[in-house]
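Figure caption, in words: inputs first, then the predicted bound structure.
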Amino acid sequence: MPAEYLRPLLIDNGTKIVLLLLDGLGGLPVQPGGPTELEHAATPNMDRLAAEGALGQTVPIRPGVTPGSGPAHLALFGYDPIEHVVGRGALEATGVGLEVRPGDVAARGNFCTLDAHGRITDRRAGRISTADAAPLVERLQTIAVPGVEFSVRHVREYRFAIVLRGDGLSDEIPDTDPQQTGLAPLAVAASQPRAEKAAACYQQWVDRARELLADEPKANGITLRGFGTDPVLPKFHDAYGLRAACVAVYPMYRGVSQLVGMDVIHFGGDTPKDEFAAAAAHLQDYDFFFIHIKKTDSKGEDGDFEGKAQVIEGVDQALPQLLELQPDVLLITGDHSTPARMKTHSWHPVPFLLWAPARALPDQQTRFGERFCALGGLGTFPAIETMPLALAHAGRLVKYGA
Ligand code: ZN
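Bound structure (zinc ion present):
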């Protein structure tokens, strides 16, 4: 349960909190002494907020632990990611609109390409296009396994989500992707006896899928990853008394929001401006907006330092539109670091900006960047302490004790 001690302190004063999350925001210098992506980016709006507010840096999971995006988001939402383990399959399936109930077993599916001996030649089926993959997913939707129910939905390109429903299922099943070419997909195998039925059902489903895809030149195989169920997390509204909404382009982030009980706002477009407009359109309906920007992380994983800085600049340019909503608290941070230099997620602490004109104690930092945040007034703190800070700065917590 997120911060149980907060519950008696909560009041509803109508204030608005915005969590603007730039995925993988934290970075590293490419040259010794050089700037990080965030320090390199021209961010006059964020710098002004940094000067008026307070900076700090978060530790997503524990020091030295490199997080996936799922647990890193849970931490920001106040759920200890060591205590609450959520399979990525459950996040992705929920995010594309498949229902995942407690006891269901969800997974992420990848199309892959197999040679005549059944060995993988391309783990992503040549990144088959959405247009080519969607009809294949429709074919997979026809597979029936006696006694249980499968739901399948396309995500994008070579990826789909799948949910198994039935009695006596459990999700202790390792990935079937061997993580390299030249090997056959692994059998679906339970790592605990209680997951044997689910593994057997999934294996039957995979065998049938292989038959249905046998003649496909590009995508004649399947791998499954991230098996998981609904972790039955305490809901955001119960924990914090906030009506919360998610504005995100990518399914996984909608999924993690829905699992904690946020509503998902649907909108067209995929730019920061589109996302801020979506929040504006629902301003009266919610107290808390989680706005997710994905491309900082994507550019970091591509090793594109300039590209990541440009994504940050694009968010900064759109920021006045978000400020027009006059949030009482605006948090700008990331879920983890994705330094372009490393081309992957990392364990480094994450830049954190808190702007709350009525209540923030400003520090001496005047720019938003890793080294400014390391010297900021909020210090270095666990990401799961973000929500109490947000609530306090929104005036939503009364005094603890007499
Ligand atoms: Zn992430």
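The chain is about 30% helix and 20% strand.
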